[in-house]
Amino acid sequence: MTDIKSLANEFQEFKKNFEIPQKETELKNLTEKSLDPDLWKDQDKAKKIMQNLSDLKNELDEVKNLEEEINIIESLSNSGEDLTKDISRIESKFKKIVLKTYLNKPNDKKNATLSIHAGQGGTEAMDWVSMLTRMYLRYFERKGWKADIIDQTDGEEAGIKSIVINVTGSYAYGFLKGEAGTHRLVRQSPFNADKLRQTSFALVEVLPEFEEVDLPDIQIKDEDLEIQFFRSGGHGGQNVNKVSTAVRLKHIPTGIVVTAQTERFQEQNRKIAMNLLRAKIWAKQKEQEAQNQKDIKGEYHPPSWGNQIRSYVLHPYKMVKDLRTGIESSNPDAVLDGELDEFIEAELKLK
What we know:
Elements: H1 4-17, H2 20-34, H3 43-76, H4 84-99, E1 112-118, H5 123-143, E2 146-154, E3 160-168, H6 172-176, E4 181-188, E5 197-208, E6 225-230, E7 246-251, E8 256-260, H7 266-292, E9 308-313, E10 319-322, E11 328-329, H8 332-335, H9 341-350
Parallel strand pairs: 4-9
Antiparallel strand pairs: 1-3, 1-5, 2-3, 4-5, 6-7, 7-8, 9-10, 10-11
Helix pairs in contact: 1-3, 1-4, 2-3, 3-4
């Protein structure tokens, strides 16, 4: 464990690079905008300003409060008290603040849309999607993030064919973007009488949540859209099934299709679907740019089936291993219960 003097010195070095004066100026500007009586005439813009204001204020408060705690513990360091627990707690807080410095790409602060799709393997693969869904929902819960399922297709016998989840929380996209790729499960099959060993695959996609004001260059014309309204598959309550509230959009130039079906009103689902479509078009553009500039390391990695990122082995031994960072855990039950911090933090530090 770090001693308090070393921790105080590390903190001062960190503070030099944290750009407090610039952040305080930005906070002042956002506060002035938040007090504009006409702010809520444009609700999307207002929400964005208020979210940025809240995030920035929290960042500055975290650093200020940590500095106060370090100063108090430093002043007590010669008192003879056992400060081990206090120093450990402060060190943990400091590591979390430092971690956010890795989240410095333009979209890292945004909310995210996380999708999981079953690979080959029928019911086995669909059950794997349901296990991953639970894992991520537990992780979101631990982070204090809000999760809304916007589309879900269940398997015929068990599990989930595909699911799309909107994740609302500070830096949700930044933390989650490294989860994109193929996740592999090895276990004894619960669907086979002989309990044979089975390998299943699922694909995770992660996109930033974009609204129209975020991507002015992406113009989605009405004539480029095919819109279908249909009855929801049942995730939204009984009333949803009585009318055609679910929305499916097809973007004709790119062939991208998105669906939203869990809100009670058609217009809400249409707005969610449009935001998701915008993000998918953005991702497609990023992928094309990456293909055109293979020698330049980009931030976007297409979550293709060949891009395997993590293996979860439950039989014949127990191990979760990230193939990019080498991080391992011999406790897959804990990982599948949402304990993903070690894996996600190690991947962030690779960048």
